[in-house]
Amino acid sequence: MRLILACIVGVALDFVLGERLSAICPAVLFGKLIAALEPALRKRFPATKQGERTTGILLVLIVCTIAFVVPWAILLLCGLIWEWLPIIISAFWLYQIVATKGLADAGMTVYDALASGDLDASRKAVSMIVGRDTDRLDEAGVVRGTVETIAENTSDGIIAPVFWFVIGGAPLAMLYKAINTMDSMIGYKNDQYRYFGTCAALLDDVANWIPARLSAFALMFSALFVKDADASRAFRIWRRDRRKSPSPNSAQTESVVAGALGVKLLGPMYYFGVLHEKEFIGDEVRAIEPEDIKRTNHLMYGAVIASTLVFCAIRFALLFTIGEGVF
């Protein structure tokens, strides 16, 4: 029951406050750890295919161990001081991990720039939340990139950490966040990380496999209550297009949002000046427009609320069978 309370409080704090304390934000701290370990480990292994894979695996093991053991130890010590302290700390950590309001606000920054007619400002705003090149995007491309990012991060940045939190408390949620941060930093298929980041990328795919699919269904449910969204079309497009991505997970939520809004997403895009041919997902029932950013935010909020309540309800139903879990 205490873990459920911490989960609800943590998600609620994120909805209300949004802003992270960068000095203690888990993603920032994990990023600094990864940035420090990478050059130190690379010096100790040869720059060969096998050497880089070994180095990448070692980095993953070190970061994952720290990400789980340190929060677990802190919560254990806090429990010795006061029985409610672990609840408070866990709720605060979850608030620092999830990013509902932050993601919505980032989307609205792009929306406001488009509404003012400043395409350059909107390109700059969207460049803060996407990995693709944005300097040549037109208005539709800016909106598409924003919608895709909100859709994908509904799972990666919000529902997935809540899912793992409900299963194993803050230590497991922190472990997930470390895995996700490693993937965002080194999980690329370029010359620098093709072999070094293989382990991190694969582990992130595994960690997100279940949450991505649960997030897809949560977004479909949310579409029932969002104006101008079509839940039945969301389900149809998800069935057809959920595998149209190099990642096994990202198109799960993107296809739902594309179907719900009746627009096309993905397609060819540039990364570091190189054109990547990606399949379109969704049907162009109508042209994509800036208002779709707001609609996607509404879909996200509904999905987060629904999934959090369902996860907590299942945890509550199993409470007397599995106990409080790791806390």
Structure description:
By secondary structure, the chain is mainly alpha-helical. It has one domain. It is built from twelve helices and four strands, in the order ααααααααααββββαα. It has helices at residues 2-16, 26-42, 49-81, 85-97, 100-115, 119-127, 139-186, 198-223, 231-241, 250-261, 291-317, 319-322, and strands at residues 265-266, 269-271, 274-276, 280-281. The strands form two sheets. Strands 1-4 form a two-stranded antiparallel ribbon. A two-stranded antiparallel ribbon has the order 2-3. α8 (198-223) packs across α11 (291-317). The longest helix has 48 residues, at 139-186.
Features:
4 strands, two-stranded antiparallel ribbon, 12 helices, mainly alpha, 327 residues
What's the SSE blueprint?
Blueprint: H1 2-16, H2 26-42, H3 49-81, H4 85-97, H5 100-115, H6 119-127, H7 139-186, H8 198-223, H9 231-241, H10 250-261, E1 265-266, E2 269-271, E3 274-276, E4 280-281, H11 291-317, H12 319-322
Unreliably modeled segments:
none
Total number of beta strands: 4
The residue fraction in helices comes out at: over 70%
Give the overall form.
Answer: globular
Please, how many domains?
1
How do the strands of the widest beta sheet line up side by side? 1-4
Question: What is the percentage of strand-forming residues?
Answer: under 5%
Distance N to C terminus: 11 Å
Task: Name the structural class.
Answer: mainly alpha
Number of helices: 12
Oligomer: single chain
Largest sheet: 2 strands, antiparallel
Determine the mean pLDDT.
94
Order of helices and strands: HHHHHHHHHHEEEEHH
Q: C-alpha Rg, in Å?
A: 20 Å
